[in-house]
Every structure is written in structure tokens, then in C-alpha cells.
Specification:
Blueprint lengths: L9 E5 L14 E5 L10 H13 L2 E8 L8 H20 L4 E5 L4 H5 L3 E7 L4 H11 L5 E5 L6 H4 L7 H12 L11 H6 L9 H11 L8 H5 L3 H15 L3 H5 L11 H5 L5 H6 L10 H19 L11 H9 L11 H5 L6 H13 L4 H13 L4 H15 L6 H10 L21 H7 L2 H9 L5
Parallel strand pairs: 2-3, 2-5, 3-4, 5-6
Antiparallel strand pairs: 1-6
Helix pairs in contact: 2-8, 14-20, 17-22, 18-19, 19-20
Bound molecules: flavin-adenine dinucleotide.
Length: about 450
């Protein structure tokens, strides 16, 4: 099939009045509610709403709704996000537009969307986000469209939950004709062709006010959360591609490197898009390159999973073979059992696990290989797999800067058998893939990783 970037990106949520029948006056505008795609360029949703405003010859308004309750998280997350939004506003201002920043209230949507004739929103991929969006949009009498910003839209690749990376990969490659497609996608010229609605809303001051309310959680290295926003994201990935792309397989699977690209936090807030990362690569790179396997296949498999499975955040979505084997081994004797607080403050007997947890507390990140070890040991050191999943999700989503993402749920459930196959049976794990500290010592100079973090003074 010929690759078409736009195919199945846009979905009509509601179109009560046909575009040609819209009642347009000089106050009418098209709105874009920016939520999970916090950037200007490579933003398909913004592109669609600008195109609509241009077609209807009306003004355009870009807004963000900040709901502190919705971001029920540590200040590290909100700081990272709010700093990025300031930069989005600066970029928009330089192009004659602005980001309207609102704090959520029940009556907000009606008042800010007065005279709005059509609204574009970002597609959501989890039940929780879908419900939230639906609730905010209820009772609005206007046309609403949602736009998918994955490299390949979730519904385009598959209309159902895929069993594994292998089944998704087959469909994905077919859509791409087995080739990497580079798509340059700057929005600046379109922004210049459409007029922005102009009213009082001093985005930067409002964001600064919210930032000032936040106390930074005590463990995090403050420099990390200030490196945020679309420009920083571009710098981080360009640097990585220049220096480390050719050595990606080694870097991403060896914790001695401490970190891989670290682009996941920027991807999570939509400060950069996969299409934008791809645009920086050489078009001759094989679609099977290990970096693309992670960024496209593994990441978009996670979006496929949360999109089609409402139990994405609990054990009920594990495959039957995994549930059966975990149940069979539920009563197996555990040499170590830890409480949440032992895990949280890196107080286990295992210096490798503790180092990973300290990396998480102090940087909001764990090296990808150590994430697997971290999750597997939580399975082993909790009374049962349901407790294990709960604890791992709690810690992951509380501290990882890329937490609360489809990848978070899938990464953790993978440790409990999701998207994997049965292995040799053993105690506690049953047929779930096993990892141990001997493997770490055998494969790596793991002391280097331990020394990097275990000397940090936490308390
Ligand atoms: C227990 C556990 C928890 C995880 N929690 C999260 C999470 O909260 N948020 C999150 O984004 N990822 C999570 N992952 C997946 C993966 O470990 C991270 O995406 C990756 O380590 C992020 O670091 P990076 O950007 O430096 O990755 P790089 O190695 O530089 O990879 C580049 C990009 O490819 C994608 N990617 C890499 N590895 C994976 C993977 N295994 N699955 C899906 N996509 C991948 C990510 O978007 C990543 O940013 C988790 C994995 C496990 C095993």
C-alpha cells in the first residue's frame, strides 16, 4: 500500500452541522484544545484545525486546560510540563498566535468556546483520558474532531488489540511498504495564513503563577525538569542521533551507559512527535533498525494495547497463560517480601535494584534494561502478582517523568507476561520470563551503574 501520512488520522466525534451549513459571523472561530501534543511543529491536530479555519475563513484559537486534579502527580511532572508550555507559547507568539492557558472549572468550556464553530482535540488512548475528555466536551453544541498523532494512526494499523510485537510489526511494515518514510511537516507557514483570535490571556504569567505554587519534590535533580519543551526535545534527540544512533543497540541494552536517548519524557508530553524524530534520520535507514523497533513498533504496540483494552492498568489484561502460571505459583515461598515503602526508598537487600530506584527518585528515569530488572524483582518480592503490578505502577507513575503513558502500563505488564511467551517454569515466576542479578554481573560492569547512584545521599 502507498504510504499516506493522513490516512485515518482524523475522526469525527460530532458533526451536528455540515461545514457548508455553518452559521458564520465575524466572531466565529475554530478552536484547537491542545492536550497530549504540546508542540507547534509536527502537530497533526493543530494542522487540521488551522486548515479548517483557513477553509472557513475564520479566526483560530489554541488553548490548554490545566486541571491540577487531573495531574494528580508529583510537582516534578507539572514543572516539566508547564515549563514546556511556556516555550510553546513563545513559539506561537513569534508566529502571530498565542497559547490560551486556562485552569479547569465546570463552566469553563462554555465560556471559552462561545462563538467557536468547530473544535479539534488530540486523540486519547486510555480509558481514563477518554472519559475525562468526554466529560469536558459534554453539552457542547459544536462540531468536534479528534486527531491521531502517532507515526501510524492506531486505527490504521489495526482494528483490534494485537497479541504481540510480531503481529503488530507485520501489519505495520505492510502499511509502510517495508520502508521508512520521512515526512517534513512545519506548520509555521499555515500559522501565518490564519489569524489568531486576540483576547486578554497572559499565558506566561498564568503558567508562572502555577509553577510558583509547586514545591519541587525533594529527591529530584532540579536541572532535569527545567530541560523541557520542544526546543530542548529537538536538541536532545539531535545530539543522540549524532553521537549514539549507530551504537543504539549497545547503549539501550547496557546499563553501564546510565541512560539511552531519554527522549521518552518529551514524547510523553508531546513536546516532540515520532514523525519529527524520524524526519531527522537518513531515509536509507532500515525500518528494522533497533531504534525504530522501539520507537515505532514497541511504542505504538503500547498505544494499540491501551486503546483497545480497558483493563490496561491491571492484571485482567494479562494473557491467559500468564494468569494461569502466576496463579499456580501464588503460594510459592518468597525469600524476600517488601512493603511499598521499602521499595519506594530503595531499602531492599539488592544493591542493583536499589540503584535503579535511586536513579528513578533522583532523575525521574531508569535505564531501559534496568526497568526490566526493576519490574521483575517487584514480581518476585511481593506477596502476589496483583500486589506487584499495583506497586510497580504506583512507583513508575509517581516518579518516572515518562510515567502514566501507554508505555508505562505495557512496560510493567510485560514483566508479568504481556506481549511475551512462556519460558522454562520456575518458582514464583512460573513460566514468566525470569531475570536475576547473576545476569547483570555476567553481562555488564554493573558496579559502575551501582556506584553512579548508590553514593547519592537521599535522606
Ligand atoms: C517496568 C517498565 C516500565 C516502563 N515504564 C515506562 C514509562 O513509564 N514510560 C515510557 O515511556 N516507557 C516505559 N517503559 C519502556 C522503556 O523502558 C522506555 O520507553 C525507555 O527506557 C525510555 O528511555 P529512552 O527514551 O532513553 O529510550 P530509548 O532506548 O532511547 O528509546 C527511544 C524511544 O523508543 C521507545 N521505547 C524504547 N524502549 C521501549 C519499550 N520497551 N517499549 C516501548 N517503547 C520503547 C520510547 O518511546 C523511547 O523513548 C517501561 C519499561 C519497563 C520494562
Amino acid at each position: 500500500m502507498i504510504f499516506d501520512q493522513n490516512f485515518k488520522r482524523l475522526e469525527v466525534i460530532k458533526e451536528s452541522v455540515k461545514l457548508e451549513d455553518l452559521n458564520i459571523n465575524n466572531k466565529s472561530f475554530v478552536g484547537y484544545w491542545m492536550s497530549s501534543n504540546q508542540r507547534v511543529n509536527y502537530n497533526y491536530s493543530l494542522n487540521e484545525s488551522l486548515k479548517l479555519a483557513k477553509k472557513l475563513k475564520v479566526k483560530h484559537k489554541i488553548f490548554f486546560i490545566y486541571d491540577a486534579k487531573q495531574y494528580n502527580s508529583l510537582p516534578r511532572h507539572r514543572n516539566f510540563m508547564l515549563n514546556g508550555l511556556k516555550e510553546v507559547n513563545n513559539q506561537l507568539t513569534s508566529l502571530g498566535h498565542q497559547l490560551y492557558f486556562y485552569t479547569y472549572s465546570e463552566s469553563l468550556m462554555k465560556s471559552i468556546l462561545k462563538n467557536c464553530i468547530s473544535l479539534v482535540v488530540d486523540l486519547t488512548y486510555t480509558n481514563r483520558a477518554k472519559k475525562y475528555q468526554k466529560n469536558v466536551l459534554k453539552n457542547l453544541n459544536l462540531n468536534i474532531y479528534s486527531v491521531d498523532n502517532l507515526y501510524l494512526p492506531v486505527k490504521r494499523v489495526s482494528d483490534k488489540q494485537e497479541y504481540s510485537a510480531a503481529t503488530l510489526r507485520k501489519k505495520y511494515y505492510k502499511e509502510l511498504d517495508n520502508k521508512l518514510h520521512i515526512h517534513k511537516f512545519e506548520i509555521s507557514s499555515l500559522l501565518k495564513e490564519v489569524n489568531s483570535l486576540k483576547t486578554e490571556n497572559c499565558c506566561t504569567d498564568l503558567i508562572n503563577k502555577e509553577i510558583n505554587f509547586l514545591k519541587i519534590d525533594k529527591f529530584i535533580d532540579k536541572k532535569i525538569i527545567n530541560i523541557s519543551g520542544p526546543l530542548s526535545a529537538e536538541k536532545v534527540i539531535e545530539n543522540f542521533i549524532d553521537l549514539n544512533f549507530n551504537n543504539y543497540e549497545e547503549i539501550s541494552s547496557n546499563p553501564e551507559y546510565i541512560e539511552s536517548s531519554t527522549i521518552s519524557r518529551f514524547l510523553h508530553y508531546g513536546q516532540i512527535a515520532p514523525t519529527q524524530i524520524i524526519s531527522k534520520l537518513n531515509k536509507n535507514i532500515s525500518i528494522e533498525h533497533p531504534f525504530l523497533e522501539q520507537l515505532l513498533i514497541r511504542r505504538e504496540l503500547a498505544y494499540n494495547f491501551t486503546f483497545y483494552n480497558d483493563n490496561y492498568n491491571n492484571h485482567k489484561s494479562l494473557p491467559n497463560w500468564a494468569l494461569d502460571t502466576l496463579d499456580t505459583h501464588l503460594k510459592d515461598k518468597r525469600e524476600y517480601i517488601y512493603e511499598l515503602s521499602d521499595f519506594e526508598f530503595a531499602q531492599t537487600h539488592d544493591k542493583y535494584w536499589n540503584a535503579a530506584q535511586i536513579q528513578l527518585l533522583t532523575t525521574g528515569y531508569i535505564h531501559g534494561y534496568m526497568r526490566m530488572y526493576w519490574g521483575k524483582k517487584i514480581l518476585e518480592w511481593t506477596p502476589g502478582y496483583k500486589d506487584g503490578i499495583e506497586i510497580a505502577l504506583y512507583l513508575n507513575n509517581k516518579y518516572q517523568l515518562d510515567g502514566r503513558n501507554p508505555n508505562s502500563y505495557v512496560g510493567i505488564l510485560w514483566c508479568f507476561g504481556l506481549h511475551d511467551r512462556a519460558w522454562r517454569e520456575r518458582s514464583i515466576y512460573g513460566k514468566i520470563r525470569y531475570m536475576n542479578d547473576n545476569g547483570l554481573r555476567r553481562k555488564f560492569d554493573i558496579e559502575r551503574y551501582v556506584n553512579f547512584f548508590n553514593q547519592r545521599d537521599l535522606f
